[in-house]
User: Fold these one by one.
Assistant:
Number 1:
Amino acid sequence: MSVLDNFDSWKAFLADRLQQAESQGMGQKTISNMAYEVGDYLASNTSAKNSEEAVLQEIWNAGSDEERHALASAMVKLVQNQGNS
């Protein structure tokens, strides 16, 4: 099963990678930029595997570059906040 098949699995995967990046000393801006690059790759090269990913992909494709950066940052905050709950 791919991490993309289930949205909760995807968020857990992102949270794990975020924790690794933070433990290696990456700053918030670098992490957000990496999230943008991943989001851009996924939106361009993969098919949504569930309804949550379909919504994110539609929003990504409709957004400007600035809005895509904001969405990537929001995804980072989503998984950061989950780790703090």
Number 2:
Amino acid sequence: MNLFYLRYFVTLAHVQHYTKAAAQLCISQPNLSHAIAQLEQELGVPLFEKSGRNTTLTRFGEEFLDCAEHTLSTLDAGMESIRRSARGEGLIRLGLLRTLGVEFVPRLASAFLKAHPDLDLQFTFHTGVTQSLLDGLSKRKYDLVFCSQPPDRLNFTAVPVQKQDLVLIVPKGHPLASRHTVDLAETATYPQIFFDKSSGIRAVVDQMFSDINTEPKIAYETEEDQVIAGLTAQGFGIAVVPYMDLLLKLDLKILQINTPACERNLFMVNDSRIFLPPCVQHFRQFVLDSTVLPGQELI
């Protein structure tokens, strides 16, 4: 069924006059008459009948008008939505580590909105550990995720956007609590609280111990760094964690790690095999322009 003919039909149904409807549609009256005749032939029933100088709908025409208007309304709404997306408007779905939701990601999102006040933009924010975020990206639940470095086997595109310092935390009264710095090898004899293997930082900490050929004494494992900090404060063990302001509020001692290297990169990750909506492309570029670490390249 010809889409233009549907629009012609709806216009004629409201105007109820061929000449006036044709003028409103900017077509000739014979073209309008031909279009209506084609519709009636396709449907097998008359849609209009003469009523004096005007043209009115038959009962079949009234029934078809409801269908045509609903169809055109749905189509027009869909077309307008796509046009808005093409203009760079729409929804940006972000997945992020909880620590990045305190300041880093909200600051970027806020700055992006302020840079584009003329666009209708929305964000959704979902937190989780690295593995769950990458799973969500694979399932297309998120457009971009901010997390630890993804495994090469996933073939995601990742770029480092922030560095985190790793520190050792110990409860007050611990034998190491009198120190300001420590070598990681000195912690081997003490029970430690480790990140769960689903957390991206686990691989970083594992590698640190591997670099010094030391096997840590793992007493507990959990996913969230805030939980690790709380357990450490209550004497369940010591832990290597990213530095965060929360640590200053707990009954802990924070030690700098001398050796090995104790820095962690956090990444913005997307699946380059999937088309990103223009608004997501623009936000991703905004993040790259704002945060990419010097000397770092796409992975």
